[in-house]
Amino acid sequence: MPDALLSVEGLRKSFPGRGGGLSRRAVRAVADVSFHLRRGETLGLVGESGCGKSTLARLVLHLIAPDGGSVLIDGTPFTGASERQRRKLRRRLQIVFQDALSSLNPRMTVGVNIAEPMRLQGLGTPAERHDAARELLQLVGLRAGDAARYPHEFSGGQCQRIAIARALILHPDIVVFDEAVSALDVSIRSQILRLILDLQQRLGLSYIFISHDLGVVKRVADRIAVMYLGRIVEIGPAEDVVRNPQHPYTRALLRAIPIADPRRMRVQDLGLAAADVASQAPPAAGCAFQPRCTLRLAVCVQEVPPTVQVAPGHTAMCHHVAPGNALASRA
Amino acid sequence: MSTDVVLELRGLRTRFGPERGGTVAVDGVSFALRRGRTTALVGESGSGKSVTALSIMGLIEPPGHVVAGEILLDGRDLRRAGAREFEGVRGSRIGMVFQDPLTSLNPVLTFGSQIAETIRAHEPISRAAAEQRAVRLLEHVGVVDAAARAQDYPHHFSGGMRQRALIAAAIACRPDIIIADEPTTALDVTVQATILRLLHDLQQEMHASLLLITHDLGVVAAMADDVLVMYAGRVVERADVDTLFHAPRHPYTRALLGCATGIEDDRRAPLQPIEGMPPDLRHPPPGCRFAPRCRHAVAACDAASPALQPFGAAHEVACHRAAEVLADA
Amino acid sequence: MDVPSDRVGVDGAAVAPPGEPRRPLSQRYWRLFAFLRDRTAVLAAVVLLAAALGAVFAPWLSAHDPYEADNLLRFAPPGTPGHLLGTDQQGRDMVARLLWGGRVSLLVGVVPTVLASIIGLALGMLAGYARGLLDQFVMRVLDVLLAFPMVLLAIAIAGVLTPGVTTEILAITVVLVPYVGRLARTATLGVVTMPYIEAARAAGGSSPVILARYVLPNVLSPIVVYATTLMGLMIVVGAGLSFLGLGVQPPVADWGTMVADGRVVLRRAPHVTVLPGVVILIVSLAFNFLGDGLRDALDPRTARR
Predict the structure, then answer these.
(1) In terms of domains, do A172 and A82 share one?
(2) Could you give the ipTM of this predicted complex?
């Protein structure tokens, strides 16, 4: 991808398994993940708990060192860079976490919290940092005077605004939102979503938006990547992925989401995947989803499926979409 | 009211802290639960929906107290009943399922013995018989290989499996009422679907009344027959599910529906959040509690609190302007 | 900054609580004021300050020499003219002895605790932040020290060195390090998993900076509270060492030694034992209350309003 602002190639990470004895097998949290992010776009990353989406975010930001693979920002290597280079590159890539209150240092005022990235980067004088923080507070819809208060004095939604202000103070190109609206109430959530979208328009930001909620991801993303047990099993334009899902997991996910309209969907219409079968460990061979897949073939148990392009910019990792195996005719 | 009403709340009022300076979390809530129907109680955090459930169960702990109202089970007020009688009702007539299955299960007891204990608390049967019934119950809620699973401890299981076990405990004595407080909020969406289906099937099969507490409008649309919308401790709208989604009258209900993010929504359509925050219940607004955030608020809304008033059959709205056409779309 | 200064179309006014925050004083001082509003803690601080001043200015405050025996005036009860709090079994003035005794007792209570807190904090933070082998090594060494009973270890250390105040301070310091170290490590483990540490790393914070600016302020308050509690206890432990002849040598006496010496004449002259005992009690309590007050004042979540 020549025009990619962010390129992720073959990122891998395993963690030592928990528990002692025989069960102590390494858990592959992220297995060979590649994607890119174009300038000004939002990539939605969706998946259920334990799929590795948060680990992936931390690998991209190099908060965890990957076992392999690379991250390039505007063509400059980020993972392979020296500590000093990486520190500088961090200015271009910032993150907003789920738990807004605990992502703010409780012993610093809101203003100091927001200005902290500048300080850590050695930018500006104390007065400049203070002014920048006050300006950003207004940008995210709070008052400049709130800078003197402490995080615990604010509600969850307000804390998330503060965390967003902090993520913006270094003028990043890319902001990663890791379940940033998941803990918020419906009415507050849409306030924050609107803020996030407004800021993107104003500042020309590129986003990676991570959530377990496909409805929320669909609302903000240009493209959607679906993760399952450490792999991106399907990625494509948001509308395509939702309207024309190719991977059986994406389909199961879509069918399981209740639609807020009793005339169109009742509990009987919810698709039931073999959910409780899911163990956190992927099977030793073959496709990660095959133990739950209703369309399992012999080949699915034996070989990891290839990544197949089903439409321009839309790929899926499934034996069924491989040439000669049309899923559409089966489903 | 028809005879199939099993539980009726009249003017329930639950307060935390002292009379002055305390928080009235539930302020005059009335509704009836009917046999064979699912009632959804919808609201955001702090709306009082969970406190309502805990009040029904008699599980409000000091500094909280149910200070007024009646909780009528088959016409008998549970608030006047003694502690022993209340305990007998809890678990046998009313079963409860909580949001977090891990913290509501005892980590040092096996699944089977926890369910058996619930049964033995209400019925004079032997331990062995109770454990046998526990295994049958686990089978009933879709736990594969139930006899073996009954010997396992909660931490061995996935969230979905734990929630199944909790549901098995809740239905152990074939209650007339099941209260499920955000039963799927902590679960993945594919697991949520199976748990919702299970709750629905059990409720149908036992002809029980299901009170489903949730913030998720998708879950409401899928599950509910009747819907109660709560805001800041009060019920603001009550309707059958179709009316609520297609002809809501309360501005809060309408705004809430506008906030929902569904997979079908167009990205380019502007988001319409509800501005502001829910009121601080230590100092609630004098009139309608939604008035400070309401686009349709007029002077009357700040002056007096609107009461629920009927609009057609089985539709009640607490809004001064409910009769007017709310052309906010 | 090229961030546009005008507001984005998000509604801030409705979201922020009403009223511009009032902060009459610079933030630097408001924690001090929060502390000053806590009457118990202020009283404790005043008591400790008085004890400290009494110890420092003992020669000027007392008309008598604490070691000057007066065989004609033994067991004088409190209120005796010239001897406000009476005299002990050797006729030495109690006021003078309490003031001079405070020099040793406060020194032994405060100095080792402060030293051990600094060392323990450094070790604990390092172990908790680095984890892995360094953590294992540091913690096992501290565990070995912890395995000995506190007083026994102090006796052993003091026993191999020449008795005196320096030895006493050294022994108590070594004894306390593992206690503080463990607490500091636990507190550090709790802090390093917080998302704000991750946020600091994402912004480019290096490990030393994160330790100093994020971990230290957040683990400091439990340590400060614990240390103030220990100070009271160490006055008693110091007395124990002196009693065994491993601390200060007679005729110099700290409060604990005074209690010990007085016990043989408890029936005849209870004030000889009771007075230093009461002083120890008051000072220990004051340290505890000061610790509680500091904890509340150090935490912005409890200090305001």
Answers:
(1) yes
(2) 0.85
